[in-house]
Amino acid sequence: MELTVVMPCLNEAETVETCVRKALACMRDHGIDGEVLIADNGSTDGSQQLARDAGARVVHVDAKGYGNALMGGIRAARGKYVIMGDADDSYDFTSLLPFVEQLRDGADLVMGNRFKGGIAPGAMPPLHRYLGNPVLSFIGRLFFPSAIGDFHCGLRGFRRDSILRLGLQTGGMEFASEMVVRSTLSGLDVREVPTTLSPDGRSRPPHLRSWRDGWRHLRFLLLYSPRWLFLIPGMILMTLGLVAGTALTFGPVYIGKLAFDVDTLVGASAAMVIGFQATLFAVFTKVYAAEEGFLPEDRRVRKLVDVVTLEKGLIVGGLLALAGLGGLAASLVHWQTRSFGTLIPSESLRLVVPSATALIMSFQTIFAALFVSILGIRRTKETPIDVAASAAEEAAEAVSREDGRAANRDEPAGSRGGAA
To answer: Which of 204, 223, 242 is the endpoint of a domain?
Structure first.
């Protein structure tokens, strides 16, 4: 079978029959060998029977959520290709051919673009049309090397085997973003075709909740991009803290009538520590995600882990600790010159703050080196080739044992018993 059209369904009695008939008619008109599969997520309004009567196959998916329903349908699909779309009659299931043609041409994922195809009046709330979708799609393109203009279009087609290999995890509305992001990071062939969006045919409110689901999409994009979540903010903070801290260590800095002194030095120190920690978290996240298969392995991170060994981390951390302890010793000498009495903060803090910062960062470096070494321990993973080779060896051994037993059975009794 070439194509399965998967529609997630939760109480869509008003529209599911229309959607099924449109999809089946499209496949019939264009000679496509296919089926319509309804992934029912617990409907109580008779949607299942209406879908069956219209010619669809219905599978029940226990796990609640948009992503869970779709993954249940994708796993149950019989087609080489899958086109997914909502069962609310907002997408045009009579125009599936452009998706199929792109898939036949070798695409792994074909996204619909509602902004290029046309959005009918009243089909999309202004909040989604002018803020939510454009902003989240822009962030997706910024964080990941993707040219997709409509990250959240619900009508999309893909090779079933390609998407199953990704191991998609999310069960809610953010499933739409995960599919695009994971496909892009895995180097799949992702394309886009224009599609239209019409007002849905339901009389009830939609399942989508604008702010809740928008936040879930944004949170997913951030969590899958350690560079933008940790690395870039961390590097900015570290740079600002280092520049300001270095300047203020040698005395106050005046900009016009503004005077920056030791209070600002303390803030610069905090920025350096926070930025350094965020940068380390970017490395931790990339290494962990690559080792566990959440993100493709980054050669630059792997090279960093190989180059920055535990021993080198301990050496760098030790040198920072020595610098910090040296600075603290100098501050004690300075205190001694004051006969261990009251100190002038504008003088003493210029020694204490940089020294304490170096000491804190030394322990961060040592702990980070230890943690990255633990994360970088590679577990032995059996590949399909390993499994096949092991099975072949076991089969060969079994045949050899069976041949040995057969030879023993055929050997004359006298020869086994020895000379009389």
So the answer is: 223
| Band (310; pLDDT cuts 50, 70, 90) | confident
- Side chain identity at 336, as an amino acid letter? Q
Q: Which of 165, 153, 169, 152 is nearest to 224 (CA)?
A: 169
Q: Is residue 181 part of a domain?
A: yes
One domain, residues 157 and 275: no
Residue 418 binned pLDDT confidence (cut-offs 50, 70, 90): very low
In-domain check, residue 104: yes
CA angle 170, 71, 180 (to 5 degrees): 60
Identify the pLDDT of residue 300.
72
Whole-angstrom distance, CA of residue 206 vs CA of residue 204: 7
> In the block, which residue shows the tokens 């520049």?
243
The reply to whether 123 and 180 lie within a common domain is yes
| Cβ-proximal residues to 371 (8 Å cutoff; 6+ apart), any chain | 284
Residue-range definition of the domain harbouring residue 322: 227-375
Mean pLDDT computed over 325-351: 86
